[in-house]
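Section 5.1 Outputs to date
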Amino acid sequence: MTIDDARGAETVPEPRIVSRTQDHLFGFLRELHAQGLSVPANKQRDFLAGIDTIAPSTTGQLYWVGMASLVTSESGRHAYDEVFQRFFGTTSDALVASDEPVDETDQSEDQDEEPTSASGQDDAEDVVVDDAGGSGLMASRTSPETPKRFAATDARSLELMRQIRGELTRAVPRTRSRRRVPGTRRHRVDLRAVYLESRRTHGEIVQLRWRHRPSRQRRILLLVDVSGSMKQYGPDYLRFAHTVVGTCDRAEAFTFGTRLTRVTPTLRIRDVDTALSALARTVLDADGGTLIGESLQEFLLDAHFVTMARGALVVVLSDGLERGDCTAMAASVHRLSQLAHQLAWWSPLACDPDYRPLTRGMAAVLGDLDTLAGVRDLATALVDVRHGFGRGPQTRLREEFHA
């Protein structure tokens, strides 16, 4: 055997080892799903592609491949850590960012040196850096990863939420249920009920029984922007979402900034302030960057989430200020408009009578919207709900823009 042949033989892994490795990885993914962590097919594909590309040689490297591709929330991280430790052991090397040694001598010398020029101080005063690590002059991809604090809900807000709750029953569109129930409406004869009743009268049909399809509320889906540009409107938007989830039987709510987070279970907590406090521990990208297109794409790639939008009233609460290329945002909104019964967009910027959707993102999605309304707080939300989510004066916004 030649040297080249020997080297080639060493690079080919044994089929038995490959099979056991694949079984172990798929078992890891199945256990994550069993522990309540959503790992749809697209996330599994990204995880396996990351392993193939990076070829992790340590447990820590494998840990971060999975963290980057499978985990989108702090609660999911706890489940991921527990399952990862059971399958792959401890992750003591997970924080190692580089294999190159750090020259501690150089660092200590740099720290001891005093600045010799005052120009650095002048430059530091010219740019104000926000908590997310940016200058605030443009949208960012970063997330602060720190819990957000919400002020207590005042009496006026509670009263507005009560009024919104009373209007939702009428405002949310209705549809016919697919299931038929017994009733007096003469839509279809209930043959089974007629047969069972005729047995008591020796086969004689004394009275016909009927079944019909009752009316019920359509599903309502809320997509709430929690990025930095929506900081002053976010609390009232989330209070509105809490009202909707607590009132409507089939309501779903998601937040998005730099990631997508399903917040429906948290918003089902009866007390609004308790729900917002729990929400602050779940939505860690609040007041961070803006990735509208990528967040909506993540929603549409999950088959379970897509069923929530099909035939539903979809309301996007965002200013539409997308970062960078707007292609993903336009494609995702177009897909949502095809799935939804009605697609409404609530923007705080549209409260200004002189507002025109001239930004690239809003101009690209305007043709797919059924309604573009100006909503910035609970009071303006109540007005739009009373008009049936845009089936009133606010509809003129979209009509004027198209004209």
